[in-house]
Amino acid sequence: MLGRTANDLFWMARYMERAENMARLLEVGHRLSLLPHEDGGQEWRSTLQSAGCEASYIASHDTFETREVVDYLLFDKSNPSSVYCCLSTARRNGRAQRTAITREMWESLNGAWIEFSRSASENVASDALPALFDRIRDRSALFRGALLNTILRNDTFYFTQLGTFLERADNTARILDVKYYVLLPQNELVGGGLDSAQWAAMLRSVSAHRSFRWVYRDAFKPWHIADFLILNPQMPRSLHSCYAEIMQALSGLSQSYGLETSCQALAGTMLSRLKMLDMPGIFQAGLHEFLRDFISDNSRLAYEIAAAYHFND
Amino acid sequence: MAFDEMHGRGRSRRCRTPYRAMATWLDGQTSEQLTTRRQQAEALFHRTGITFAVYGTEEAEERLIPFDIIPRVLSAAEWRRLAAGIEQRVRALNAFMYDIYHRQEILRAGRVPADIVIQNAAFLPEMLNVDPPRGIYSHIIGVDLVRTAENEFFVLEDNTRTPSGVSYMLENRETMMHMAPDLFSRNRVAPVEQYPEELRATLESVAPAGLDRDPVIVVLTPGEHNSAYFEHSFLADRMGVELVEAHDLVSTETGVMMKTTQGLRQVDVVYRRIDDSFLDPLAFRPDSVIGVPGLFEHYRAGRVTIVNAPGSGIADDKSIYTYVPEIIEFYTGRPSILKNVLTWRCRRPDDLAYVLEHLPELVVKEVHGSGGYGMLIGPTSSRAQIEAFRAKVVADPARYIAQPTLELSTCPTVTDEGVAPRHVDLRPFVLLGDRMRLAPGGLTRVALKKGSLVVNSSQGGGTKDTWVLED
Predict the structure, then answer these.
(1) Average pLDDT over residues B53-72
(2) Closest to A155 (Cβ–Cβ): which among B230, B261, B263?
């Protein structure tokens, strides 16, 4: 496989995953903005932080009005992480690799793009936003389904898996970090009287507000939520799950290429740490510090994968 | 009145034999049914993504070449004759190229004027004395034919550089079989689906000698903005080979390499879909940013094969075209089976005088033009258009050739006014490697505008499935 092909597949998957995460973050932000808050702007600010778009937003906007933030994250062509740009980039990557992806994958990419590019900000009424968020998630699910059902289990599959799960891990870690750090009053202990709406919102943003109850069967407790999103291998968006998938993809690659790479060692270390740690340990060392290190290791891994498999030679 | 593929000529309107089963089928279809089938076909094409051109950055729409659901049919006997003619032509043109890039006997014999070869932009002096594997220059050729009567086929053009359209031949057949399986059960239609395998076999057969492994083949595309990009990726996909752009290739001391996820890997055969001048900036155009520096040097040393060979455009130049009957006789010792269209070369004063006198009856083309642009079709042009064109020809006669306006055959076609005759041409696709492989069928292009003789897709043309019946 060409290095360029691997690069395009990786980013195609990453951008589709990002579009979906963006839709979810927006959904939650939108929901919180409807609650009787003293400061709705703060909510949107943390949504922008989770999306990794705070600095660029502030550079071009003065306020955190709902509609402005939503437009920035959905439609803004100057924001590379807007849903518009994610879908457009994913489709462009897929189009450049029509020989590597299946017809079903192409049709879902193409369909997502054609549908979304027709809905411009001025045509979407505020009360139509939730439906639009749903559609973005549906489209992403369709793509993922097409991928899992039709793709050959060879390097094509492994590189798309890597893109998906590196992006997902990054997203989950950011959501946790932002909520933990921003929303927790400084003088309050972790596990103290937190507004449960905040924690519920966090679970919603990873589609886990219902599954959480099935796993923990008690009220939202921050350490349980952190446990769920970081360490629980059953939770498909937890860091643990993401790294189990990443590890599988990397082993698959090294088997089919007959070559061990340094990224496999790095991912292996990260996965075994997630397996061994428990929440008391993480809290003791500092949740924020843990997440900050994780996010940076995660991007280092992406970088090493690109180097090991000659993405940009 | 033009010869009709289904009804022949004249008033009798009797159905020609190869179309019998089709006619019965067509009689059983209401115009609503035909319209529905046409829409189904369009939906199928959209889903496959068989589209061309227009990729602005903001542009989500891609254009389809219109597809007509009434196939064009050739009998086994008709096809045998065409096949013999095409084979003869393709072998002769390759012999011609071998000759002009080596001893140039045909020029010394004075059968083709030396200046139109040597001074031709498509002639590459860099290719002199280069020995391509099996002595083949054009491995993949599309011969443009038109028909004017029961037994009158003419060659309009030999596309010997990078003929396109074969993906339409394949997808048109897929669509047709999907939509009208009953039609196939009533006719014995020769399959064309083996084309990608045959293409691959052809490419493998011209790999550099002495390889101790399976040859590594790539399709080289200018990229996704090229109007034929769909076809490039389609062919790579169907052959199961990599689709590369120039920057995916690099030349090292040992040969041409592609940059893979596992490092560099040697490439043996490059099926290029880019022009000669963009192949290698070291050899051809220093200002070219696309291209693989060093590719040509490796080609010359026999470390990689380029298909079609650099310099193969010389054989389909319109100024050479007029000499193809002589070329065939010179190399095969036999008269040409397929006819050329009578052509006046405006570079010759006598011809020019005739052309200027008869402009309203003639088709005048630029020697180096293509795609139906820059041409005059006398009979359908206004006086002002003709006079404007006359001025251009007078200013630079050598740039033009002229031909009589051929009454292209028509084929029944679904139009907004029901089924009506529309003019068609035919492009069969030939492969030449260890042996000749001719796909039984080809691309039939149809001028969808009533009375129009221009079949190019850029000018409102469509395509049809093309059937060769078995005995």
Answers:
(1) 65
(2) B261
CB distance B262–A2 less than 8 Å?
Answer: no
Same domain, B259 and B299: yes
Question: What kind and span of H or E run contains B391?
Answer: helix B383-395
* Cβ <8 Å between A2 and B244: yes
CATH of the domain at B366: 3.30.1490.270
Which of A98, A309, A311 is closest, CB to CB, to B233?
A: A98
A278: exposed, middle or buried (Cβ count in 10 Å: 0-12, 13-18, 19+) = exposed
Query: Which candidate from B60, B262, B263 shows the least CB-CB separation from A113?
Result: B60
Task: Kindly state the average pLDDT of the residues B16-41.
Answer: 89
Minimum distance, in Å, between the CA of residue A127 and any CA atom of chain B? 27
Could you tell me if residue B152 is inside a domain? yes
- Flag if B245 and A106 touch (Cβ within 8 Å): no
Intervals of chain A under pLDDT 50: 182-183, 185-194
Q: Closest residue of A to B258, CA-based?
A: A2
Average pLDDT estimate for B288-306? 91
In this model, does residue B60 exceed pLDDT 70?
A: no
Q: What is the rounded CA–CA span in Å between residue A186 and residue B33?
A: 73
Q: How far is A56 from chain B (nearest CA, A)?
A: 23
Looking at the structure, do residues B432 and B455 belong to the same domain, yes or no?
yes
To the nearest whole Å, the CA of A4 is away from the closest chain B CA by 7
Is there a domain that residue B11 lies in?
no
Q: Any idea which residue has 């005995």 for tokens?
A: B471
How large is the greatest C-alpha to C-alpha distance in chain B, in angstroms? 70
CA dist A186 and A190 (Å) reads 9
Give the helix ranges, DSSP H, for B240-348: 295-300, 318-321, 324-332
Between residues A123 and B102, which one has the greater pLDDT? B102
Band of residue B98 on the pLDDT scale cut at 50, 70, 90: very high
Q: Does B276 reside within a domain?
A: yes
Q: How far is B258 from chain A (nearest CA, A)?
A: 7
Whether the predicted pLDDT of B54 surpasses 60 = no
**Of the candidates B359, B389, B404, which is a domain's last residue?**
B404
State both tokens at A179.
Answer: 């909520």
Indicate whether B157 and B80 sit together in one domain.
yes
Residue B113 within any structural domain of the chain: yes
Give the B-side interface with A, CB within 8 Å: 47-49, 60, 224, 230, 233-234, 236-237, 242-245, 247-248, 258-263
- pLDDT value at position A128? 87
Domain final residue pick, B377, B404, B431: B404
List of residues 6+ apart from B66 with CB closer than 8 A: B448, B461, B462, B463
Most B CBs within 10 Å, among A77, A88, A99, to test the B interface: A99
Residue of A nearest to B240 (CA): A99
Say yes or no: B260 and B355 in one domain: no
Average pLDDT (B231-257) is 94
For A3, which of B230, B233, B261 is closest by C-beta distance? B261
pLDDT of residue A220: 64
Whether residue B277 sits in one domain with residue B394: no
pLDDT at B461: 87
Alpha helices in B194-323 (DSSP H): 195-205, 229-239, 295-300, 318-321
| Residue B318 sits in the same domain as residue B361 | no
User: What count of Cα atoms within 13 Å lies in the side-chain half-sphere of residue B164?
Assistant: 19
Give the residue on B whose Cα is nearest the Cα of A159: B261
Mean pLDDT of chain B: 90
Q: What is the pLDDT of residue A10?
A: 98
Q: What is the pLDDT of residue B56?
A: 37
Domain that holds residue B368: 342-404
Classify strands B67-74 and B461-468 as parallel, antiparallel or unpaired: parallel
- Whether residues B367 and B427 share a domain: the answer is no
Q: Same domain for B229 and B328?
A: yes
Structural domains in chain B (count): 2
Q: Is the pLDDT of residue B57 over 60?
A: no
Starting at the edge strand found earlier in the chain, the sheet holding B217-220 runs: B242-244, B217-220, B269-272, B305-307
Q: State the complex-level ipTM.
A: 0.81
